[in-house]
Please model this.
Amino acid sequence: MGAAIGAGDGKKSLNVELNIVPFIDLMSCLTAFLLVTAVWVNIAQINIQPKGKTRDTSNVEVDQEHPTLSVLVQADKIWVGVSRINEFQEIAKKGDDQDWEKFYTTLKDHKASTFFADRTDIEVAAESTTQAPVNYKDIIHAMDIAVKVGFVDVGLSDPNGLAARPSL
Amino acid sequence: MPVHSAGPRLYKSVPFKHLVKKAGSASGGAKGSNIALNLTPFVDMMTILVTFLLMVFSSSGQLLQAQKGLELPIAESRETLQQAPVIIVTKSEITYQGQLVATTESVLRDDSPTFKIDALYERLDAAAKKIKEDVGMGRYDKKLQKACEDAKQQIRPQPGFICPDGLAILQADETTDVRLINKIVNTAKAAGFDNLLFAVKNK
Model:
């Protein structure tokens, strides 16, 4: 690899040989290091605040002044409820998976309502039994949708500790 | 095997006849036998590779250890993780900072009224006290110390700069039963960890 300098006046061109060996050495070392230390999976986080504390519902502090949006994930359905008003919406499972699209639109509607337009808090719980287990990924999906809609302060609660709980 | 005297080897022992023809033989005299390798594509490729690797370089992945039998759930959240004590839940066991705490089966079987995992509680409680002391002594860097001051005034922290007091990471397999997660969350809450980061994989 060379570089021509001058040579405009008819004399012999002055080709300078650049020594690219150290450059290649450096690149090889850097490539090897980066390949070894590369992280191919991007890890992110969902920040939650534990709520509800225990199964003992007498310990649960319920905000009586403001309505709270509560989500209860069950194996075959999702409940979305508003405390004080005690209004519940049931979102049944669609095929093998939960109906996440409907859940998204439901939360979006609540976020647009006057109750929750300026609120960012939501409480999520999951009720799992040996017969009807709920997986961790379902609750993560529910929380991820809540964050996406604008409820960024997600509280994870015990099912009995929800402010609004459907009577089953 | 007969011993030959040292001499030119490349084009005699290796049958690169086409190269010899093109570049001239070593013993031919007239033409030089040096072949100039074109390094430009090689350097180009290396440059592109290094640029790509530098772009995908991420330090957040190093906070978590890869575990056998652990597949993180997928989420759209892009908030970065930060350094904190890590609770790992695989398909078969629960570990805290790499040390086995309990098996998932035993925790699911246990139906004690305390609704928490005692072995995990002991470790978390000790860790929470240590972190609280470190925050009180100002042993964390300035941004994290400021986050702790802000937290007292209910100011929302910047992603990646949450006050370490009461902060822990939960790295759980996506198929984990939620009863187990509830127990771990309750245990963490009881020990003073009231701010949990659920590790997820980006879509």
